[in-house]
């Protein structure tokens, strides 16, 4: 025991301990089996006597953690192209869905909270890469989280080392015990809250069950949707390419069309409560793509088309650069989600489904990106795309008939 303590003391009081902390903290993001937090707490326990220096441990841990997290983020970006194939495995699909949902709701704060949740660090960093979270924003939020984690772990180690200055191994055990108790308590509270939410959801009546409709509207509410377009699909000729196939003027892609090429049964101009912004690079037009952000003050003009759920799924598939396929989950998902909810089906630009409202029981749906306007870099759209947007906006203004309601919040 004395020999083991002597070896541990020599190792942790050597200047090489800082490099050891950097490497362990970096590897822990890519390989969560590396016990970087335990190593940092142990080193901080010995730091209570003055060597190593606590500030050096904090800097080494934060720097190593940020470096490893950036590597995980880049892995996520590299893997994003093939993420669709991974969804055949239920566990991976569940992890991806958790990351996508978290980032769509809380953005960069997930990177901070993920450091203090078991398994959350790798999930948050790789998930941010899969979503295309901007690198500059990633470095800011993850840097804050890495520094907070380094201060927290070093502080716990110092407490143990100060309380048991003459018995460093006991101080290490106390420090690790404190960390486990805090993490365990936080995880228990999270699970209890999650269980409570599931129970509430299970007993909450569906929106459709609260409505009274005649027979025709009841049937339509289970087969049709109001597809709300805020981008180039506001132009009816542009939407026709998604339904009947073809290439829009100025575009670089020819669309296969939907399984049912019937044109919309009705259309109407509406006002959405948010606004649009341009980001990414369009494979169809070049330059930025239009996305919808409900959290930014609006309103913004949009057009609602009455089409079948099957047609909507096919339009969404083509927006996601996928071929239309039978039995798409979107065909039922649009009816299962309550008004005001969102659901990410993938990491791509138009893979987050929004249920805006209901009009006489028929869902009003659209799709956008999981990120918001403030969470990504804006890009300039090309002129052919802007021309199509101007055409669609003019059609919206000229549209007559019912101006359908849209939810105040999504």
From TrEMBL:
<dbReference type="GO" id="GO:0005886">
    <property type="term" value="C:plasma membrane"/>
</dbReference>
<dbReference type="InterPro" id="IPR032816">
    <property type="entry name" value="VTT_dom"/>
</dbReference>
<feature type="transmembrane region" description="Helical">
    <location>
        <begin position="138"/>
        <end position="163"/>
    </location>
</feature>
<keyword id="KW-1133">Transmembrane helix</keyword>
<dbReference type="Pfam" id="PF09335">
    <property type="entry name" value="VTT_dom"/>
</dbReference>
<keyword id="KW-1003">Cell membrane</keyword>
<keyword id="KW-0472">Membrane</keyword>
<protein>
    <submittedName>
        <fullName>SNARE associated protein</fullName>
    </submittedName>
</protein>
<dbReference type="InterPro" id="IPR032818">
    <property type="entry name" value="DedA-like"/>
</dbReference>
<feature type="domain" description="VTT">
    <location>
        <begin position="34"/>
        <end position="157"/>
    </location>
</feature>
<feature type="transmembrane region" description="Helical">
    <location>
        <begin position="16"/>
        <end position="34"/>
    </location>
</feature>
<keyword id="KW-0812">Transmembrane</keyword>
<comment type="similarity">
    <text>Belongs to the DedA family.</text>
</comment>
<feature type="transmembrane region" description="Helical">
    <location>
        <begin position="169"/>
        <end position="189"/>
    </location>
</feature>
């Amino acid at each position: 025991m004395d020999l083991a303590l002597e070896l541990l003391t020599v190792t942790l009081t050597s200047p090489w301990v800082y490099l050891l902390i950097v490497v362990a903290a970096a590897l822990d993001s890519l390989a969560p089996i590396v016990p970087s937090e335990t190593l940092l707490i142990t080193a901080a326990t010995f730091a209570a006597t003055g060597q190593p220096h606590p500030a050096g441990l904090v800097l080494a841990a934060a720097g190593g953690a940020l470096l490893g997290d950036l590597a995980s983020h880049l892995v996520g970006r590299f893997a994003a192209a093939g993420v669709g194939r991974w969804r055949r495995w239920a566990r991976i699909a569940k992890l991806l869905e958790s990351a996508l949902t978290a980032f769509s709701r809380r953005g960069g704060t997930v990177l901070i909270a993920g450091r203090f949740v078991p398994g959350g660090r790798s999930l948050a960093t790789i998930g941010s890469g899969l979503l295309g979270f901007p690198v500059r924003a990633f470095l800011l939020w993850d840097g804050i989280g890495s520094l907070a984690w380094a201060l927290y772990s070093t502080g716990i180690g110092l407490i143990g080392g100060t309380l048991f200055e003459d018995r460093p191994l006991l101080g290490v055990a106390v420090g690790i015990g404190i960390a486990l108790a805090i993490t365990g308590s936080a995880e228990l509270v999270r699970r209890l809250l999650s269980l409570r939410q599931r129970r509430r959801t299970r007993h909450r009546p569906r929106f459709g069950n609260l409505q009274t409709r005649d027979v025709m509207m009841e049937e339509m509410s289970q087969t049709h949707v109001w597809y709300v377009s805020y981008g180039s699909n506001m132009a009816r000729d542009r939407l026709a390419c998604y339904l009947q196939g073809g290439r829009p003027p100025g575009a670089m892609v020819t669309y296969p069309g939907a399984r049912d090429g019937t044109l919309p049964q009705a259309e109407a101009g509406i006002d959405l409560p948010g606004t649009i912004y341009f980001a990414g690079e369009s494979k169809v037009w070049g330059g930025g793509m239009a996305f919808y952000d409900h959290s930014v003050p609006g309103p913004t003009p949009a057009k609602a088309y009455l089409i079948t759920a099957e047609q909507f799924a096919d339009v969404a598939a083509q927006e996601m650069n996928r071929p239309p396929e039978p039995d798409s989950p979107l065909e039922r998902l649009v009816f299962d989600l309550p008004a005001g909810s969102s659901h990410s089906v993938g990491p791509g630009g138009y893979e987050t489904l929004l249920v805006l409202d209901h009009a006489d029981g028929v869902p009003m749906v659209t799709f956008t990106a999981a990120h918001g306007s403030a969470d990504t870099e804006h890009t300039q759209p090309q002129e052919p795309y802007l021309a199509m947007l101007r055409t669609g906006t003019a059609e919206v203004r000229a549209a007559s008939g019912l101006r359908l309601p849209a939810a105040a919040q999504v």
